[in-house]
Amino acid sequence: MSSNNQIAIISDSDFAVQEITNMLVLLRDVDKVECYDYFDAEDAIKNKVPNVIILHSNENDKNSLKLIKKIKDYKETKNTPIILYPEQATSDYIVEAFDLGVSDILSYPLKDYELIIRTIWAIQKNEAFYMDEVKNSFLSKLDIIDEETGFCKEEFCLQYIEAVIKKAKENNQNSCLMLIKTYPALNLKEDRKTFTKTLSSAIRKNDVIAVKEPDTYYILLSKAKLSGVYSVYERIMSKLGPLAATSASVVEIKDELFENIISVLDYTLNKAPKNGELVVVGEQDFIDLYSSESELGISDILEDESEDKSDDKMIEELNDEIVVEKDDDKLDLGIKIMQEKINNIDYEKEAALRRQKSEQKLDETNADKRSAILYKQSWAKKLNLVVEPLFKKYAAKFQEEFSTLVADISVEPFNCFMNFDKDEIKYNIKIEYDEIKTLKFTINVYAIETELESDSFDIEVMDFDFEKFNIILKTSLDEYKNYLQTS
After folding, report:
1. pTM passes above 0.70
2. Which of 23, 118, 182, 279 could serve as 272's disulfide partner, Cβ 3.0–4.6 Å?
């Protein structure tokens, strides 16, 4: 740990500043503690960049969130760890703070050992960021990584990815390698810039992105299993929006040879649809790849040797090459053997074609099964992280505003609903999941069995997120509220 660590305490409360300062004296390696109020903090931190920032806030203080955003937007302090110490905070406030980039949150009331441990950890994290910047700066000078994006360049792509995978294996770390390709609607430089920024914002610090070729990238996700990869890919797709069609494949790193991993990712990416679905590589894909390459190699050799000759022409040439002996029986026997060989080739071709069609059908079936599993996993997460929290939020809000309102909520895997009833004016939203990829929404507002408002529509699981569902609920409940207030 450095001997000249700087810690900045930001608070408008003199008591909180004194409380934190008194506890920090236990940090022997800390040389200096600077204290600022909210008004002075931004300029002071720019002039003297600290190793760690401890930000104290009152209950759900929006000024603290604005300050966090300013600190993270400033180039020199964007990687400075921020420890947030809110006296009271809702879950929404904490989530927003983490989204803006805070590293840690202290619980109230403050405990000295907790503050010390979290601060030491933050200082170590700051030094790790510094060493990472030194490494990236060095790699940029060697022209291995792009200074603007931080991505490994095409020339060193495979060597860099292989080295990182080797290190992950040595440390027994789970990791996954994704290959993602975008097809821009307009082949503009701005589209590519947006896409690279989207990739960067979706990964963690220890993850690696390398350029395979323009618009195609490897993403190595360290300390990740397939379930974690899907959430990363979902973030990419939600941020990318309608900018471009994409296809992607991912493999969980196990004991396969690096060359085989790269080959199977290319193989599955070529089969992946361009609608944003993530194709997961399985054992069968490795098997299919090997058999496909084998057959392709043989057919190439045959084509090269025959120079696209027809079977009839081949027979003619073989006839010319047969030495005509005096014994007609031997001649007939040679022709018969040759014809049998030709027939065998035709039979093997037909058998290979049948196998190919059968394997193609199996591929499509396996791809559909994998996609269905991924959709179900995604929907299960969104039930807990999107549907249930927003149902509860709006139920609590309306019950607080309308004291006699009765709310009924159900969150089940294939059928969710939220019902409101006040003075016989009722609201109902229902979500039905088809167990594959489609969510069917039905919204009704009615009074005394008379329909006042009605709407129904479908959304794919991949397109469904917190923001869209919040808009759906807010819009429909605003209509319901109008009927309540005018009744």
Report:
1. no
2. 279
User: Which tens digits make up the pLDDT trace of 382-401?
Assistant: 888 889 888 998 999 899 88
CA dihedral 101, 191, 217, 264 (to 10 degrees): 130
Cα–Cα dist 412/419, whole Å: 14
CA atoms within 13 A on the CB side of 97: 28
Cα–Cα distance for residue pair 387/331, rounded to 1 Å: 81
- What is the three-class DSSP state of 148? coil
Burial class (CB in 10 A: 0-12, 13-18, 19+), 334: middle
What is the reported pLDDT for 266?
A: 87
Enumerate the domain spans of the chain: 5-136, 145-283, 288-367, 382-486
449 phi-psi bin (left φ>0, alpha ψ -120 to 50, beta other): left
Q: Please name the residues in contact with 244: beta carbons below 8 A apart, sequence gap of 6 or more.
A: 182, 183, 184, 185, 191, 195
Looking at residue 305, what is its pLDDT? 44
Q: At 111, list the tokens.
A: 């405990």
- Burial category of 328 from C-beta neighbours within 10 Å (exposed 0-12, middle 13-18, buried 19 and up): exposed
Distance, CA of 255 to CA of 145 (rounded, Å): 27
Burial readout 2-37 (b: 16 or more C-beta within 10 A, e: otherwise): eeebbbbbbbbeeebbebbeebbeebeebeebebbe
C-alpha distances in angstroms, 139 versus 116, 136, 143, 150? 35, 5, 6, 10
- DSSP codes, 244-295: EEEEEEEEE-SSS-HHHHHHHHHHHHHHS-SSSPEEEP-HHHHHHHHHHHHH
Residues 6+ apart with CB under 8 A from 16: 56, 85, 87
Q: In this predicted structure, what is the pLDDT of residue 303?
A: 43
Q: Is the dihedral of CA 322, 326, 330, 332 positive or negative?
A: positive
Residue ranges of the chain whose pLDDT lies below 70: 1-3, 26-31, 136, 184-191, 241-244, 275-276, 288-372
As given in the structure block, the two tokens for residue 188 are 């503009």
Calpha distance 303→296 (Å, rounded)? 10
Architecture of domain 5-136: 3-Layer(aba) Sandwich (3.40)
Angstrom distance (rounded) from CA 135 to CA 11: 35
